[in-house]
Amino acid sequence: MEEEEALPNMWFLSSDDDNDEGDKEEDCQSRRQRRSKCWEGCGRPVATCICPLLPPCPIPTSTHVVVLHHPQELRTNKIATLPALCRCLERCSLLCGRRLHPGASPLLDSLSAFPSPSSPVLFLFPTIGPSESAIDLKRWVSHTPYASRAEPVLIVFDATWRYAREMVAASLPYLERFALQVQIGDGCDAGMEGASTFESDVVLRKEPWKGCLSTIEAVARALRVLEPEERGPEIEERLLAVLRAMVAFQAVHLTPVKPRTKLKKKGKVVRE
């Protein structure tokens, strides 16, 4: 009986069934290809590999970039720009944690104990409210002799904006001893919405406020100012070219959301 019950399943196989099986196999292969990553290169999915746009050799800079990234950032943020940034820059150090403190970085500990006349320590984070203060990086450079900033150390915080603010606040007791807070331009304006991928070719995801930048864009803008004049713009553009490629891949899978109308009482119509 078991053999007789199994026969109908075999007899009813048709050419259509064969095609279905073939389609399923192709779909599985396509999914596997999308899931596979470029482990030896950019670390992104093979379908969105940006290795051809990365510098063949890391870019040398006089600035040493130190990035404190939140433990969850690289695990949860699938479009993080930090891996690409690290592949681009020769002098880029990563620290994983929620705050900077004595013992977290031998380099920072050394500069804290023995400040270097040519290596000022700056930490890049924008002001968001009137109670916060940071100096515009461009202004700081224009008022600081080159000999006193020949090899600066730039600290950057990589996380969501909520976590980044917490990380900066937790790190201040340590940083205030030897580091200066700087920002790009006027910082953030919490009263205005940030740009989205549909409005800019360097925005991977919608930012909460005007003036918010991704990690790689913030570093690119900073290096334009910190590096010598003949090198700064070139380094900025090379980093932004990588970011634009990432945004282009991301934009392909996004669909603009049209505002919906919502009827309210008394005949008023508002946009959601």
UniProtKB/TrEMBL annotation:
**Biased composition, class Acidic residues, residue ranges:** 15-26
Keywords attached to this Swiss-Prot or TrEMBL record, sorted alphabetically, are: S-adenosyl-L-methionine, Transferase, tRNA processing
Annotated EC: 2.5.1.25
Name the catalysed reactions: a uridine in tRNA + S-adenosyl-L-methionine = a 3-[(3S)-3-amino-3-carboxypropyl]uridine in tRNA + S-methyl-5'-thioadenosine + H(+)
Where in the numbering of this chain does the DTW domain appear?
34-255
GO MF, one example: tRNA-uridine aminocarboxypropyltransferase activity
Q: Where are the transmembrane segments?
A: none
SMART domains per the UniProt record, alphabetical: DTW
| Keyword tRNA processing (UniProt) | yes
Taxonomy, superkingdom:
Eukaryota
Which GO BP terms apply?
Answer: tRNA processing
InterPro entries in UniProt: DTW, DTWD2/TAPT
Extract the ranges annotated as region (Disordered).
1-28
The text of the family note is: Belongs to the TDD superfamily. DTWD2 family.
This chain belongs to the protein called tRNA-uridine aminocarboxypropyltransferase
Species name for this entry? Vanilla planifolia
